[in-house]
Amino acid sequence: MTYRVCFVCTGNICRSPMAEAVFRARVAEAGLDGTVEVDSAGTGGWHEGEDADPRTVDVLEEHGYSLAHTARQFRPAWFDRLDLVIALDADHLKALRRLAPTPEDAAKVRLLRSYDPAAGHDLDVPDPYYGGRDGFEECLEMVEAASEGLLAAVRDEVEGRAA
Protein backbone atom coordinates (compact mmCIF):
# COMPACT_ATOMS: atom_id res chain seq x y z
CA MET A 1 0.00 0.00 0.00
CA THR A 2 1.39 3.39 -1.02
CA TYR A 3 1.95 6.06 1.63
CA ARG A 4 1.22 9.53 0.20
CA VAL A 5 2.74 12.83 1.38
CA CYS A 6 1.84 16.26 -0.03
CA PHE A 7 3.80 19.43 0.81
CA VAL A 8 1.80 22.67 0.75
CA CYS A 9 2.83 26.34 0.67
CA THR A 10 1.08 29.41 -0.74
CA GLY A 11 1.61 29.33 -4.51
CA ASN A 12 3.42 26.00 -5.03
CA ILE A 13 6.41 27.53 -6.81
CA CYS A 14 9.04 27.97 -4.04
CA ARG A 15 8.84 26.21 -0.69
CA SER A 16 6.58 23.23 -1.34
CA PRO A 17 8.27 22.14 -4.59
CA MET A 18 11.62 22.47 -2.82
CA ALA A 19 10.37 20.27 0.01
CA GLU A 20 8.93 17.82 -2.52
CA ALA A 21 12.28 17.49 -4.33
CA VAL A 22 14.31 17.09 -1.14
CA PHE A 23 11.94 14.59 0.46
CA ARG A 24 11.60 12.59 -2.75
CA ALA A 25 15.41 12.27 -2.78
CA ARG A 26 15.42 11.15 0.88
CA VAL A 27 12.71 8.59 0.14
CA ALA A 28 14.73 7.21 -2.79
CA GLU A 29 17.93 7.09 -0.72
CA ALA A 30 16.04 5.11 1.93
CA GLY A 31 14.81 2.62 -0.66
CA LEU A 32 11.18 3.64 -0.11
CA ASP A 33 10.49 5.19 -3.53
CA GLY A 34 8.18 2.32 -4.47
CA THR A 35 6.27 2.67 -1.20
CA VAL A 36 6.13 6.44 -0.54
CA GLU A 37 4.67 8.90 -3.05
CA VAL A 38 5.59 12.59 -2.75
CA ASP A 39 4.02 15.66 -4.35
CA SER A 40 3.15 19.28 -3.58
CA ALA A 41 0.48 21.95 -4.00
CA GLY A 42 -0.42 25.50 -3.00
CA THR A 43 -3.20 26.86 -0.83
CA GLY A 44 -4.05 29.24 -3.67
CA GLY A 45 -4.19 28.91 -7.44
CA TRP A 46 -2.26 32.06 -8.38
CA HIS A 47 0.57 30.14 -10.06
CA GLU A 48 -1.38 27.07 -11.17
CA GLY A 49 0.14 25.64 -14.36
CA GLU A 50 3.47 27.46 -13.92
CA ASP A 51 6.90 25.94 -13.43
CA ALA A 52 8.73 26.27 -10.13
CA ASP A 53 10.44 29.59 -9.47
CA PRO A 54 13.79 29.55 -11.34
CA ARG A 55 15.61 30.40 -8.09
CA THR A 56 14.13 27.30 -6.48
CA VAL A 57 15.28 25.16 -9.41
CA ASP A 58 18.77 26.71 -9.40
CA VAL A 59 19.32 26.19 -5.67
CA LEU A 60 18.03 22.62 -5.85
CA GLU A 61 20.21 21.73 -8.83
CA GLU A 62 23.29 23.28 -7.21
CA HIS A 63 22.73 20.98 -4.24
CA GLY A 64 22.18 17.85 -6.30
CA TYR A 65 18.39 17.70 -6.44
CA SER A 66 16.20 17.47 -9.52
CA LEU A 67 12.70 18.82 -9.95
CA ALA A 68 10.10 18.50 -12.72
CA HIS A 69 7.22 20.61 -11.46
CA THR A 70 3.97 22.29 -12.45
CA ALA A 71 2.19 24.33 -9.77
CA ARG A 72 -1.31 23.33 -8.68
CA GLN A 73 -3.80 24.22 -5.98
CA PHE A 74 -4.58 21.85 -3.12
CA ARG A 75 -8.09 20.40 -3.27
CA PRO A 76 -10.04 19.21 -0.18
CA ALA A 77 -11.00 16.00 -2.02
CA TRP A 78 -7.32 14.97 -1.93
CA PHE A 79 -7.49 14.31 1.81
CA ASP A 80 -9.08 10.92 1.04
CA ARG A 81 -5.97 9.69 -0.76
CA LEU A 82 -3.29 11.43 1.34
CA ASP A 83 -1.72 10.06 4.49
CA LEU A 84 0.17 13.20 5.47
CA VAL A 85 -0.20 16.85 4.43
CA ILE A 86 2.86 18.91 5.30
CA ALA A 87 2.35 22.66 5.71
CA LEU A 88 5.34 24.97 5.31
CA ASP A 89 4.09 27.63 7.74
CA ALA A 90 1.40 28.24 10.34
CA ASP A 91 -0.91 30.05 7.90
CA HIS A 92 -0.84 27.04 5.58
CA LEU A 93 -1.51 24.77 8.55
CA LYS A 94 -4.62 26.78 9.51
CA ALA A 95 -5.88 26.98 5.92
CA LEU A 96 -5.45 23.26 5.35
CA ARG A 97 -7.13 22.30 8.61
CA ARG A 98 -10.08 24.53 7.65
CA LEU A 99 -10.30 22.73 4.29
CA ALA A 100 -10.25 19.30 5.90
CA PRO A 101 -13.65 17.60 5.56
CA THR A 102 -13.27 15.62 8.81
CA PRO A 103 -11.33 15.83 12.08
CA GLU A 104 -9.35 12.77 10.92
CA ASP A 105 -8.33 14.66 7.78
CA ALA A 106 -7.35 17.73 9.82
CA ALA A 107 -5.12 15.49 11.94
CA LYS A 108 -3.14 14.58 8.80
CA VAL A 109 -1.86 18.18 8.54
CA ARG A 110 1.49 18.90 10.20
CA LEU A 111 4.15 21.60 10.03
CA LEU A 112 7.35 20.53 8.28
CA ARG A 113 9.70 22.01 10.85
CA SER A 114 7.94 20.12 13.65
CA TYR A 115 10.08 17.21 12.44
CA ASP A 116 13.31 19.14 13.15
CA PRO A 117 14.21 18.91 16.85
CA ALA A 118 16.61 21.87 16.49
CA ALA A 119 13.90 24.17 15.07
CA GLY A 120 12.86 25.60 18.42
CA HIS A 121 9.56 27.49 18.66
CA ASP A 122 9.51 29.12 15.22
CA LEU A 123 8.27 26.35 12.96
CA ASP A 124 7.63 28.45 9.85
CA VAL A 125 9.74 28.14 6.73
CA PRO A 126 9.92 31.80 5.58
CA ASP A 127 8.68 32.59 2.08
CA PRO A 128 11.75 33.41 -0.06
CA TYR A 129 9.74 34.69 -3.05
CA TYR A 130 10.15 38.44 -2.49
CA GLY A 131 13.77 38.26 -1.34
CA GLY A 132 17.10 37.31 -2.78
CA ARG A 133 18.89 34.06 -3.31
CA ASP A 134 19.86 33.83 0.38
CA GLY A 135 16.23 33.18 1.26
CA PHE A 136 16.12 30.20 -1.08
CA GLU A 137 19.33 28.81 0.44
CA GLU A 138 17.87 29.28 3.94
CA CYS A 139 14.66 27.56 2.83
CA LEU A 140 16.65 24.59 1.54
CA GLU A 141 18.60 24.32 4.80
CA MET A 142 15.36 24.23 6.82
CA VAL A 143 13.76 21.70 4.48
CA GLU A 144 16.80 19.43 4.60
CA ALA A 145 17.00 19.63 8.40
CA ALA A 146 13.35 18.64 8.81
CA SER A 147 13.41 15.94 6.13
CA GLU A 148 15.40 13.50 8.23
CA GLY A 149 12.85 13.53 11.05
CA LEU A 150 9.97 13.40 8.59
CA LEU A 151 11.54 10.41 6.86
CA ALA A 152 11.89 8.59 10.19
CA ALA A 153 8.22 9.26 11.00
CA VAL A 154 7.05 8.13 7.57
CA ARG A 155 9.23 5.01 7.73
CA ASP A 156 7.64 4.15 11.12
CA GLU A 157 4.16 4.56 9.61
CA VAL A 158 5.02 2.45 6.57
CA GLU A 159 6.57 -0.30 8.70
CA GLY A 160 3.58 -0.16 11.08
CA ARG A 161 1.25 -0.85 8.16
CA ALA A 162 3.33 -3.81 7.05
CA ALA A 163 3.33 -5.39 10.51
Structure description:
By secondary structure, the chain is an alpha/beta fold. It has one domain (3-162): Response regulator (Rossmann fold, 3-Layer(aba) Sandwich). It has helices at residues 15-29, 54-62, 90-99, 103-106, 133-162; strands spanning 3-9, 36-42, 84-87, 109-111. Strand 1, helix 1 and strand 2 (36-42) form a beta-alpha-beta unit. The longest helix has 30 residues, at 133-162. The radius of gyration is 15 Å and the shape is globular. The relative contact order is 0.21. GO terms for molecular function: protein tyrosine phosphatase activity.
What's the domain count? 1
Q: Globular, elongated, flat, extended or rod-shaped: what is the shape?
A: globular
Characterize the quaternary organization of these chains: single chain
Number of helices: 5
In percent, how much strand structure appears in the residues?
Answer: 5-15%
Q: How many E-type strands?
A: 4
The CATH topology = Rossmann fold
CATH architecture: 3-Layer(aba) Sandwich
CATH homologous superfamily (4th level) name: Response regulator
Supply Rg.
15 Å
Looking across the biggest beta sheet, what order are the strands in?
A: 2-1-3-4
Helix-strand string: EHEHEHHEH
Quickly give the structural class: alpha/beta
- The mean pLDDT is 97
Concise structural overview:
The protein is built from five helices and four strands. The protein has 163 residues and is α/β, with parallel strands linked by helices.
List keywords for this structure.
alpha/beta; Rossmann fold; 4 strands; 42% helix; 13% strand; protein phosphatase; hydrolase; protein tyrosine phosphatase activity; EC 3.1.3.48; LMW_PTPase
